[in-house]
Specification:
Oligomer: single chain
Structural class: mainly alpha
Largest sheet: none
Helix content: 55-70%
Number of domains: 3
Shape: elongated
Number of strands: 0
Radius of gyration: 31 Å
Strand content: under 5%
Length: 394
């Protein structure tokens, strides 16, 4: 993609908009707006400076006082009108808005002007945008949301939200899979508020996306909106998700569905938030998770996360169960044991320092984090030897 100023220069030389920039990109239009302003300062000779028309090229009267500023003589080309809509002089931008009716290709610049700092420009652009059909506004949802971060960017965002809420569901549906993250999130919020998605579909979205915002939004709504007929599908989808926050929502849903006992399977989950939810659900069902953890730690190979869970809900005496597991042959057990000891606040430099040479890099990182508060206790000589051991051969 060309740079901001390159695109602006090409438009100034009469290059068609669709050739000078990527017309489908929201950022291209914002960049063009900035680029024209920069161009006006750095290369003003490329932009019109006086009011005249020789039958070949239209110019604008930049110097005339309000209200006589106007586009003169011949109808402007699309490129010329784009320049006027981005011009540093607000009078030029306002006058240009009077000539964009029917120029659908320039609607993105009308949206840009809705967030203009100059009130007359802003109000005129907003009046024009309010007349556009909802389909046109939805097409530029990414640009609307990008500009909504500006001080005056709320109008178009509200207009977009109303258009999606009051328009056909298919319009929202089309935006759910948008390549633009902000658009996807906005569309999903509208869909959730309008109850346009079934609990099963919400659970599938939560389980299938890597967007944490959508995971929370869809998982929570799936659980909140599910009926008895949806229980099995929704809970199954959430419990088998890769994302910990989605599995946690599924575990919590077990309480609502009366299936408290199934939370046992998640006491040793690799994620702390899932383990915490599992303990909560079991306690709500009248089961104390601590004896279960102690039993699992007697044979931790099948559920390494139990070592962390024991530390999270156990007492100082449970450290005696965990210390021997630092020598367990499975790296996952050693890793979760370190987490359990940290949760019990019983970490000692003497017992954990040997794990800084562990063959598992994950264990080394966990041990390093656990020993950071005691870093001053390591002598410079020991640190130098450790650095030599960690250095690659050759």
């Amino acid at each position: 993609m060309t740079t901001d100023c390159t695109a602006a220069e090409r438009v100034a030389r009469g290059v068609a908009l669709h050739e000078a920039l990527d017309p489908s990109s929201a950022r291209s239009w914002v960049a063009l707006d900035l680029g024209v302003r920069i161009q006006a300062w750095e290369s003003p000779h490329l932009l019109p400076a006086h009011a005249w028309a020789d039958g070949r090229r239209l110019r604008w009267d930049w110097d005339a006082p309000l209200p006589s500023v106007r586009l003169r003589d011949h109808p402007p080309s699309e490129s010329e009108l784009a320049l006027a809509l981005c011009h540093p002089d607000g009078r030029i931008r306002e006058a240009a808005l009077g000539r964009v009716a029917g120029a659908g290709a320039l609607l993105p610049l009308v949206i840009v002007r809705c967030a203009d700092w100059a009130e007359p420009v802003r109000e005129r652009a907003r009046e024009l945008l309010s007349r556009e059909p909802s389909t046109a506004l939805a097409q530029w949802a990414g640009l609307v949301l990008l500009l909504s971060r500006r001080a005056q960017g709320g109008f178009a965002r509200e207009l977009l939200g109303r258009a999606l809420r009051e328009g056909p569901a298919a319009q929202v549906e089309a935006l759910l899979g948008s390549d633009d993250r902000a658009t996807r999130r906005f569309a999903h919020r509208v869909a959730v508020a309008g109850r346009l998605l079934t609990p099963g579909r919400l659970a599938r979205i939560a389980a299938g996306t890597d967007d944490a915002t959508l995971q929370d939004l869809c998982a929570d709504e799936a659980v909140a909106s599910m009926g008895e007929q949806d229980h099995d599908l929704v809970v199954s989808l959430l419990l088998t998700a890769r994302a910990p926050r989605v599995r946690a929502a599924g575990v919590t849903a077990l309480r609502r569905t009366g299936r408290h006992g199934e939370a046992r399977d998640f006491l040793a989950d690799r994620s702390g938030i899932v383990r915490a939810c599992a303990r909560y659900v079991l306690r709500q069902g009248g089961v104390d998770p601590l004896p279960l953890y102690r039993s699992m730690c007697a044979a931790p190979a099948g559920h390494p996360g139990a070592c962390a869970g024991l530390g999270e809900c156990g007492g100082p005496g449970d450290a005696e169960t965990l210390w021997p597991l630092l020598d367990h042959p499975l790296p996952a057990v050693r890793l979760h044991t370190i987490a359990g000891l940290r949760a019990l606040a019983v970490v000692t430099r003497e017992q954990l320092a040997p794990l800084l040479d562990d063959p598992s890099s994950a264990v080394v990182r966990a041990a390093t984090r656990a020993l950071l508060p005691d870093a001053a206790g390591f002598s410079p000589q020991w640190l130098l030897r450790a650095a030599d051991r960690a250095a690659p051969a050759g």
